[in-house]
Amino acid sequence: MRERWLAHFALSPCGRGRSAVRRGGRGVRRASGCCCRRPLSQPSPARGEGFKWQFLLPLLALTVAVPARAQSVEQRIAIYKHRVSLLEDQNAIEDLQATYGYYFDKGLWDQAAALFAPDGSFEYGQRGVYIGPAHIQRAMLLFGPQGLAAGHLNNHMMLQAVITVADDGMSAKARWQGMIMLAQPGQNGVWGVGVYENEYVKQKGVWKIAKLHFYVTAETDYDLGWTKSAIPMEGPSALFPPDKPPTEVYRAYPGVYIPPFDFKHPVTGKSLADIPEPPDDVVGRK
Fold this sequence. Notes:
This protein has 286 residues and is an alpha+beta fold.
């Protein structure tokens, strides 16, 4: 598995393998993957034959920031293994989040809640924070019955992932763009959009969701559209109260709120965790 990743990382036939990975202070971050998925054993027209692991080390050495002359072969191999391990972690996190999305879309609350760590948290808009799989499963029931009944739609698509794995490979953060399509019997459909700022933890070799926070950017009536309709976010439920109030108070569209970025600017290296927000008298933000 690691040999395949190393080969793909360094010698993807499309030439995008190395540019797809950014190295940061907290580990390795992938903003997008390589479009090429050719197996190692498949011949490459540009090279005339299939790749073999023993030929990769000289080329992989070019991707290491530390001069090769200052490193032994063992040191370079250790660096490659570490980077590949982080890439494998990124893949596992992407699969974990995608699995959550499929479960959540179809109202499989029991299965979705089981993806969280024992002390994991779930926060959706201004509904408050639910802690632990049992409470998270109960919070999800507010979106509809287990399995979704007829007439319900609960699609939450997750796009534009930026995943940052900590250098020790035990925790990670990720930002996703979310698009929403909702429907309930007797009500008009709803379009929505928002941003996920999530955290993950590896426990006994298995990645789990440590924190899922979906910031609602806008929700609107399907027919009217966002120029004529702006649906306000729901507050905490009286039926299934949250364990904690919302961590941040903000308004969705027509209000404007930019969730802090968990990663630094890839070119300037500056943090975007404290972006100045536009004033909003309704929530008391000046």
